[in-house]
Specification:
mainly alpha, two-stranded antiparallel sheet, 6 strands, globular
Length: about 260
C-alpha cells in the first residue's frame, strides 16, 4: 500500500457521470426518507477505467498488478448496503442491522480500485481475508445517517486519504508488511487484506525490493547513457507506478541519503 493522490478529473465524461451519480443519490435519499424500498444502481462502475489509470493498474490495497480494467473491482471504502465487524458479523444498532453508508454509494471519493481478492471474502474460516462489508471502526462508533461519518475513526487504511506508511512498513527480512508500533489500523488492514498470507504478494514485494537493490549495485559500474538509464529507471520506480512500490520505496530509502541524493 502506498499513498495515491487521486485528483478529481475535469473531463466532460467525468462531469456527466458525476451529475448522474448526484441524481441517483438524491433519488435514493428520498426513498430512504419515505421509508420505501431502495436499491443501488451500479452506475458507479462507469468510470472504472479512470480509477484503473489513477492507480496505475494496481489494487489500491495490496498493490498487485491487475492486468485489465475489467478484472478490477470498484470498491466502496465505506460499504454501501451492509456493514460488518472485523470478524464479518453484522453491525447492529437498536437490534437492527446497519443499512450501510447508502448516502455515500455514489460519491466518487468513497470509491477505490481493488482486486477481487481484497474486495471479496474467501471461504477459509481460518484465514478469512477480503473486505467486502467489513469496516471496523474505533470504539465501534458507526455512523447511521449522512454527516455522522465525520465522527468515525476507521480502522482500515484509505490510501487516498492518508499515507499508509504512517501505519505499515516493509520488512526486508521476510517480505512481510509490519504494523508500525503495533497500531490497530496497520495490523487490521494487514489482516483483512491478507497482506502476509498471500504468497504472491510476499514474493512480489521481495522481487520489487531486490530489483531496486540490483539497480543501485549497477550504478558504480555504468557511465554516460547507461548511468542515466539506471537513474531514469529508479525515478520511474519512485513514482509508485509499479507493483509493490512499498517494498521498492523501502530499498530506495536505504540508499538515497548517501548514494543518490537526486532521488530525495
Amino acid at each position: 500500500m502506498i499513498k495515491i493522490n487521486f485528483v478529481e478529473p475535469t473531463t466532460d465524461d467525468w462531469n456527466t457521470w458525476k451529475e448522474t451519480c448526484n441524481k441517483k443519490k438524491e433519488a435514493l435519499l428520498l426513498l430512504v426518507e419515505r421509508g420505501e424500498e431502495w436499491e443501488i444502481d451500479n452506475v458507479y462502475k462507469a468510470m472504472k477505467d479512470v480509477y484503473y489509470a489513477k492507480c496505475c493498474g494496481k489494487c489500491i490495497y495490496c498493490e498487485k498488478k491487475i492486468e485489465k480494467p475489467y478484472q478490477s473491482e470498484i470498491e466502496h471504502y465505506r460499504p454501501k448496503k451492509r456493514v460488518t465487524f472485523r470478524d464479518d458479523t453484522p453491525v447492529k444498532k437498536n437490534g437492527a442491522e446497519h443499512q450501510g453508508y447508502y448516502w455515500l454509494a455514489y460519491d466518487w471519493d468513497n470509491l477505490l480500485l481493488s482486486c477481487q481478492v481484497c474486495n471479496k471474502p474467501n471461504n477459509d474460516e481460518e484465514n478469512k481475508l477480503g473486505k467486502r462489508n467489513r469496516f471496523p471502526v474505533e470504539d465501534n462508533y458507526y455512523a447511521t445517517s449522512p454527516g455522522e461519518e465525520t465522527n468515525e475513526k476507521p480502522l482500515l487504511i484509505n490510501p487516498t486519504k492518508e499515507d499508509p506508511r504512517d501505519y505499515i512498513e516493509y520488512n526486508p527480512d521476510n517480505g512481510y508488511i509490519d504494523a508500525i508500533k503495533n497500531n490497530n489500523k496497520g495490523s487490521i488492514s494487514i489482516e483483512i487484506f491478507g497482506l502476509n498470507i498471500r504468497d504472491d504478494l510476499v514474493d512480489g514485494r521481495k522481487e520489487a525490493y531486490d530489483k531496486v537493490n540490483a539497480l543501485f549495485a549497477k550504478l558504480p559500474y555504468v557511465k554516460g547513457v547507461g548511468r542515466q538509464e539506471v537513474l531514469d529507471k529508479l525515478e520511474e520506480i519512485k513514482s509508485g507506478m509499479h507493483p509493490h512500490a512499498i517494498a521498492a520505496f523501502a530499498a530506495i530509502e536505504e540508499y538515497k541519503k548517501d548514494v543518490l541524493p537526486v532521488l530525495g
